[in-house]
């Protein structure tokens, strides 16, 4: 318990260092564009493939399990839409990205620490936390809403493929279900959650990597700790945000 409190205080002090004014804005914006491309754009194929298949699986499972004559046939499309908008395209997708993006950041910064590159920056008077970490946090937070919207769209497309190419549900019923009782706030709710989750992923991973001590073995442990810690915090934040935004 005491160790957790100390780590939280250390994390807060780390964020104070990170969010200071950059010394050179031109260098910052150059790093920002690079991180958006590396952390965000490179994640698009993963997001699209997973969302497509998950949307198809949700549609199949809803069709199989909704067999009561009292439940309208368009409920499959409605349930698929709600699951994707409320949970999968925000929470589940960020848990997956925590494994890809979080481990990448932790291992990269951890390697810089054990090879003494960060120490060299500190000796030269550079705010290493701000220089290395801030572009990663801002870049991923700015781009993650795009990933969320793409996940929602391609998840619904995956369900449409099941309706189009199988006899489990008609395309008309599926499309009608997608349009029924639509609440625009659910889309914004998912985007707001992904922004918070993106901050958790990048900041926790950077913190784990920044304070690595040792060698290559410790870098691997830091990557694992980053993914585990950020996943737990994402689930905790999901409960809090759901209570605040959907009450």
What's the layout of helices and strands?
Blueprint: H1 2-18, H2 25-40, H3 44-65, H4 75-114, H5 117-123, H6 128-165, H7 171-179, H8 184-210, H9 216-245
Helix content: over 70%
What's the total number of strands? 0
Q: Give start-end ranges of low-pLDDT stretches.
A: none
Question: What's the tally of helices?
Answer: 9
Query: Which of globular, elongated, flat, extended, rod-shaped describes the shape?
Result: elongated
What is the rounded distance between the termini? 31 Å
Rg from alpha-carbon coordinates = 21 Å
Q: How many structural domains in the coordinates?
A: 1
Order of helices and strands: HHHHHHHHH
Q: Report the major sheet.
A: none
Rounded mean pLDDT score:
91
Percentage of β-strand residues: under 5%
Decide which structural class fits the backbone.
mainly alpha
């Amino acid at each position: 318990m005491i160790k957790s409190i100390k780590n939280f205080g250390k994390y807060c002090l780390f964020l104070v260092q990170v969010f200071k004014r950059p010394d050179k804005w031109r260098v910052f914006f150059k790093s920002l564009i690079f991180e958006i491309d590396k952390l965000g754009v490179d994640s698009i194929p993963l997001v699209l493939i997973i969302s497509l298949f998950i949307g198809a699986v949700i549609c199949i499972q809803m069709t199989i399990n909704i067999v009561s004559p009292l439940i309208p046939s368009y409920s499959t499309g409605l349930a698929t839409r709600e699951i994707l908008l409320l949970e999968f395209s925000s929470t589940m997708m960020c848990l997956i990205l925590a494994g890809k993006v979080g481990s990448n950041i932790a291992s990269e910064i951890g390697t810089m620490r054990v090879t003494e590159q960060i120490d060299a920056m500190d000796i030269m008077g550079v705010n290493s936390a701000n220089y290395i970490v801030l572009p990663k946090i801002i870049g991923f937070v700015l781009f993650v809403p795009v990933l969320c919207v793409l996940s929602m769209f391609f998840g619904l497309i995956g369900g449409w493929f099941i309706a189009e190419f199988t006899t489990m549900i008609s395309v008309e019923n599926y499309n009608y279900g997608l349009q029924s009782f639509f609440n625009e706030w659910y889309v914004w709710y998912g985007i707001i959650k992904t922004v918070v989750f993106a901050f958790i992923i990048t900041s926790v991973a950077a913190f784990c990597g920044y304070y690595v001590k040792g060698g290559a073995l410790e870098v691997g442990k830091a990557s694992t700790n980053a993914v585990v810690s950020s996943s737990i915090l994402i689930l905790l934040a999901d409960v809090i945000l759901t209570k605040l935004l959907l009450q």
